[in-house]
Amino acid sequence: MPALEVRPFRRADRDQLTDLGNAHVAAVVPGVSVSVNTVLSDLERQPGEPVTDPWVAERTTLVAEQRGSVVAGAHLLRYRADAEVGASYQGVGEIDWFVFQPPASHWPDSEEAADLLMSACLTRLARWNVRARYASGDLPAPVIYGLPRNWPHVRAAYARAGFRHVGDTEVILLARVADLPDDPLPPGLTIERTLGECGTRFTAHADGHALGFIEVGTSLERPERHVRAAGLADIGNLHVDPAEHGTGLERRLLARAADWLRLCDVDRLVAYETETDRTMLDHLTGAGFRELTRTDRGWEHRPG
């Protein structure tokens, strides 16, 4: 068996690394894949992270190769330590994403490749002399962030290396737009469409007061990055005045958003909620959403 080699990413690796990333994406969200252009762009900068990306001082991509094949890959970031950087990011190093095929009959030594690559990642973080070492699974695809439960092999590789989950867990939900409610508006309630912080906003008004709003984003990726996610949108914000809980306002907001999404030829809608918010999770599942997966955010290197 030829020896495994861990080395820096080369442009000739782009197709194999993209295929490896897309295999992981496909296990989390249906019908989504990324192009080679998307992957190459992400290795250079992350326009979808306008706050944190300018804080990055250095980035590198490593791959494990065997028999001429890229069998594992990882992307690492080092954040600056100056005052312009957010306090929690100052001087931090991060494994932005880490992918490899799980063990299989045709490739029984995949864990060896993963561990060898992980060792190289930790060596690079040590060389950068970062104050803390974090990890995630933020592949450049919609809905992929944190460390999804669908990647037990990646989670095991992180655990073997000494990474521990220290953050929150979020539930990712998916609904067919056709299954969302179509509740009529009662007298006195109007819904206005405007531009919101995270997409198109629909705000419910009654008696001159805003009662709640929902924001939906239909541009989950920049068009030039060629992500295959046609027909997919997400809920950026959903807020209802506590006094309106139980009145069905959430369903009516979803109904207006669904009507708009149909005009946009969107057939699937994604929602994200922390697993502790049982009230909102119940509202969403009652409106036609199903749990797609759970993802754990915030992994820190705590060996021993």
Folded structure, characterized:
- This protein is an alpha+beta fold.
- It has two domains: 5-161, Aminopeptidase; 174-295, Gcn5-related N-acetyltransferase (GNAT) (Aminopeptidase, 3-Layer(aba) Sandwich).
- The chain contains six helices and 15 strands.
- It has an eight-stranded mixed beta sheet.
- Helix 3 crosses helix 4.
- The radius of gyration is 21 Å and the shape is elongated.
- 38% of the residues are buried.
- The model has no long low-confidence stretch (mean pLDDT 93).
The number of distinct helices, counting runs of at least 4 residues, comes to 6
| Largest sheet, spatial ordering of strands | 6-14-8-13-12-11-10-9
What structural class results from the helix and strand content? Answer: alpha+beta
Shape: elongated
Give the biggest sheet. 8 strands, mixed
- How far apart are the first and last residues' alpha carbons, in Å? 32 Å
What proportion of the residues form beta strands (DSSP E)? 25-35%
Number of beta strands: 15
Helix-strand string: EHHEEEHEEHEEEEEEHEHEE
Radius of gyration: 21 Å
Q: What is the helix fraction of residues, given as a range?
A: 10-25%
GO molecular function, one term: acyltransferase activity
Domain N-acetyltransferase: 164-304
Pfam families: Acetyltransf_1 (PF00583)
Keywords: Acyltransferase, Transferase
SSE layout:
Elements: E1 5-8, H1 14-26, H2 36-44, E2 56-66, E3 69-79, E4 92-100, H3 110-128, E5 132-135, E6 147-148, H4 152-161, E7 163-165, E8 169-176, E9 189-196, E10 199-206, E11 209-217, E12 232-240, H5 249-263, E13 268-274, H6 278-286, E14 290-296, E15 299-301
Parallel strand pairs: 4-5, 12-13
Antiparallel strand pairs: 1-2, 2-3, 3-4, 5-15, 6-14, 7-15, 8-13, 8-14, 9-10, 10-11, 11-12
Helix pairs in contact: 3-4
